[in-house]
Specification:
- The chain is about 30% helix and about 20% strand.
- The relative contact order is 0.18.
- The protein has a seven-stranded mixed sheet with strand order 1-3-4-2-5-6-7, with helices on both faces.
- It has five helices and seven strands, in the order E-E-H-E-E-H-E-H-E-H-E-H.
- The chain has one domain: Rossmann fold (3-Layer(aba) Sandwich).
- It has about 200 residues and is α/β, with parallel strands linked by helices.
Length: about 200
């Protein structure tokens, strides 16, 4: 997997626009402001492949990136309270349409902020992934913002989370320091090899 060959492919704002899944897919999901775009940029060693914003909820489309014979999907973040009801409905329909389609999902990379306990929306997403039988890994983002004892405490807390029990792997990661990125790349590569 040569990450340098990644390229942006397309964005889709409604379920009706989503193309059929014709390649193995790696899906990145998580709540607004969890650091999804920053992590994707670090994963691909690019500064601005995925748009990063200081404003939560900026990604409102499904963004596809192509790498060799695989496609990476960056899903819009969930749980941003300041979205209008119309926007929340559109988001829900887009997500339902995405996961209801016959997609060739090899791995869902579910991001959680390591500094905080999973939200109700996080748990709902994790339960959905488990219930749907989708292979998923949990990436605990922003680990660099915790000191050693805080990390140990949060690590123990996440270990108790029943919703995480179905994860194929839990990785602590930082888009600032690069911690956990190699482990995530290996996991993605293994998931694509199983295709």
């Amino acid at each position: 997997m040569n990450i340098n060959n990644v390229r942006f492919e397309a964005s889709y704002g409604t379920a009706a626009q989503l193309p059929a899944s014709d390649l193995p897919e790696i899906v990145f999901a998580g709540k607004s402001n969890v650091g999804k775009s920053s992590l994707l940029n670090k994963f691909f060693n690019r500064k601005s492949l995925a748009r990063v914003s200081g404003v939560p909820g900026k990604t409102t489309t499904v963004n596809f990136f192509r790498l060799g014979n695989a496609r990476f999907a960056d899903l819009p973040g969930y749980g941003y309270a300041k979205r209008s009801d119309t926007e929340k409905r559109r988001w829900g329909e887009l997500m339902e349409g995405f996961f209801a389609g016959r997609r060739q999902i090899r791995l869902v990379v579910q991001l959680l902020d390591m500094r905080h306990a999973p939200t109700a929306d996080d748990r709902t997403m994790l339960e959905f992934l488990s219930g749907a039988g989708l292979p998923f890994a949990v990436v605990l983002t922003k680990c660099d913002k915790l000191n050693k004892s805080e990390r140990a405490k949060q690590r123990a807390s996440f270990a108790q989370e029943q919703a995480l029990s179905g994860a194929v792997q839990v990785i602590e990661a930082s888009s600032v320091t690069g911690e956990g990125i190699e482990a995530l790349r290996r996991l993605v590569e293994e998931s694509l090899e199983e295709a």
